[in-house]
Amino acid sequence: MTISDFDKRVLIEQVRAIEAGQVLADDTAGLSEEIPAHSDFDARLWQRAQRLAERNALWPELGRAAVLSRRVTTITLIVAVLSGALATGYAVNAGQAINIYWLLLVLLGFNLLSMLLWLVGISMNLEGLIEGVFAKLASWLPSQLQTESNVGTRADRAWLTCHFSGKPGKWQISTMVHQLWLAYMLAGLTVLVLVLMARQYDFVWGTTLLSDTAFVKLTEVLGTPLHALGLTTPTPQQVAETRIGALQTLTAAHRYAWAQFLLGALLCFGIVPRLLLWCWAVLMRGLARRRFALDHYLPYYIGLRQQLLPLAGHGRIVDADTAPPAAAATPAIDPVPHQLPAAAHWVSVELGDDIHWPPTFVGAGNDLGQIVDRDSQMRIQQRLQTDNDPLLAVAVAAARSPDRGVQRTIADLIADSAQAWLVLLHSREQGAISTTRLAAWYRLAEACKVPADHVISMSVD
Q1: Which of 61, 78, 215, 369 keeps 20 to 30 A from 29, CA to CA?
Q2: Please, are residues 295 and 319 in contact by the beta-carbon 8 Å criterion?
Q3: Which residue, 164, 148, 154, is CA-closest to 72?
Q4: Residues near 325 by Cβ (< 8 Å), separated by ≥ 6?
Q5: How far apart are CA 430 and CA 355, in angstroms?
Q6: Cβ-contact 279, 183 below 8 angstroms
Q7: DSSP 188-213
Q8: Residue 135 or 445, more confident
Q9: pLDDT tens digit sequence for 299-311
Q10: How does pLDDT run across 52-110, given as a tens digit for each residue?
């Protein structure tokens, strides 16, 4: 069975939610040996999530929300079908005459209002008109689920959050709304066709406040697209003769024209527009799911990155004057996608006296210098604007606090770069970066629009 990337990321988020409440049996070291060296971070997370699910027997809890969703969807569709059938039966009733415009109002009125509100909500990005009760139900339901294990509740909440929040949630809810209205109207159309085939009805209309010409004009407007489809519609004379209380007796031609008008109006103004909106929502939902990405800046993923991508994100800079020969001590490894390209230009930001700049592997042509004051910053920025360097690595001291001044400086430096990396340097004496400090640097990278894959931690000897 093929699993989409979206479903894989949802399962990873479910595992993250479970691990937030309890420790799962894990074997990250053995997993790293099994995964190909060139696998990206998401692929490694997927492999780890699968292993955790198997080792801890989590598959029933992980799949429960999807099963519940399918059941709820089936029940709501059945309710929508019954509502459409009952509404049509009530409007037709057991008499010999059908109030044509009352029936159109029952089947089309609220449907057209719903489509209008949805279009306004989509165009103006108003969540209340798009999501409404569905979104509140999706966020409220997991907390109300009575389960024997908290693991299942956390997994359900993560599943619902991924499916019913953000852009995937907006289009998922839109798809459900259009689907329910389609079921309602198709059921109404089916019942209407059956009763028109089985019984003979007269068609009438009536009004207390409006004039006869208003209904004649309305019928002409609604009949314009039906004429284009080759359907028969009532003439102005037939419309006038159909009013309640008219003395004329309706002929078979009257009934046939009104029947085609009624069925054609349901198709053209109800089912076809709703079907097109449903197709659009399905396409946009697929696009939103393909674009759905994990938040790699969360401390949870930052910690896993250190374990699953030790070579990709955490290397070692060795200076020539104090370094032991690293090549003899460390076996050669293939380059991984997240390593810095050799053509990248380097600039450092307020490293202090504990870290020597530049390191030996940064060539003189790639070193743009170190920012220590406003003058040096302006000089380096002018050079960046002049040279138009597409690749830029910004080195900072990991031990310092990532305050707003550093964030502003980094954002100004990488503004004109096609790709940028944030390199966190720390000396061996300082030890590894704390999880809290590392998370703060990742949040700074997110604010500066530096991808999480481009945040690299290196120690300097």
Answers
A1: 61
A2: no
A3: 164
A4: none
A5: 11
A6: no
A7: HHHHHHHHHHHS--EEEB--SSS-HH
A8: 445
A9: 888 888 877 876 4
A10: 998 888 999 999 999 999 998 999 999 999 999 998 888 777 566 778 888 888 888 88
